[in-house]
Structures are given as C-alpha cells and as structure tokens.
Amino acid sequence: MANLASNKWYLWYLREVANGHLELPDYEENEDGSVKIYYGELFCRVPDCSKAQKKYTATNNLRTHLESHEDIELQEGNNGGRVAQKVVDEAVKWYKGLFSGIEPQAGGERSISVDSSAGQSASGLPPLPVKKDGSVHVTNMRKKVVEFGRKVPCDSCANRNDCCKDIDKCDHFVHFDCGEIHPTLAPSQPTTEEGTA
C-alpha cells in the first residue's frame, strides 16, 4: 500500500470511515460473481455488518473477515505481492469517487468548529489553524505545513494563493484534525447522520 500511503483520498477514506462520517457503498460484483475489493481496502462493506467501522490491518485480513459472511463470494487466486499500477489507479479513482473529488465551489472557505487548543488532538494530528470567526487561518496553516516539511502549494493546488483554502482540493488538510469539517461526500454517498442509502 506504499503507493496509497500518501494519497489524500485514501487518507480521507481511512479517517472518515473510522470516525463514522462516511458510509461505504455495497460491494460491486466481478464478472464471476465474486465481490470486487479495491487495493488497500480495510473496512467491511457488507450491509449491516457489526464490524463496518473496524479497520483491518491489511486487505488480506479484511478478506478473511469477509469469508465469515454468508453469500459473499471471494475471487480465487494470489492476493499478495506487488500490484500493477493500473490496479492502484483504479483504487485511487474509487477512493476519490467516495468524495466529491471536484474543484472547489464558489466561496471555497468554510466556517469550521475546531478546538484550537495547543498540541495534538485525540486523532494525534495538530488542530487546524482557525481564525476567531471559525474560518481557516490560511497563513498559519501554510506556516504549519512548511514546518511539517511539506511544500506550498501542494500538488493539487495551482499556485500558492489557492493552497490551504479548500478541503476538497488541497492536499494539506489531511495533516490536521479538521474538527467538524470533512471533505464533501459524492452525491451518491449518504452520511451516517442522514441514515439513507
């Protein structure tokens, strides 16, 4: 999973499923009737599974769990070793598809509720720098990003002026505990609070 370890959409997938903000879609089926498992998946997507928010340590451990479900057919064959870039690209496309993965909407800045106390949050990440009005403190965020050894602008932002302004576009938001702000879910993805599929 080294190819996915720094992908912002994959990191958002891991964070948002674990904390209950993202409900995953049901499995699609391959041509042979087996369920399609994307490279790097660590959460069960079987409807009503009691372990849906349990993060497995590896995709093969998830596969072992899936074998415990009736009516789930897994694809036979080698499940370890290196994977082709095409497989990684397909997985990244799926992870990105869980979120809007779109360019920022007009007025990209949003009001955010974050505990701005010093240090790290319960997530182990530093809190997102915010202004008194709750909006992102872009200047302080950029300073922190540079302290982390990252560059501004990130790979997804066109220039420095665009960087650190929109969670749906900028790569750097994954380095902070963003409190109540989350990447926009894809239109077909319900939030767990809405409770609809």
Automatic annotation (TrEMBL):
<feature type="region of interest" description="Disordered">
    <location>
        <begin position="106"/>
        <end position="136"/>
    </location>
</feature>
<protein>
    <recommendedName>
        <fullName>C2H2-type domain-containing protein</fullName>
    </recommendedName>
</protein>
<feature type="compositionally biased region" description="Polar residues">
    <location>
        <begin position="113"/>
        <end position="123"/>
    </location>
</feature>
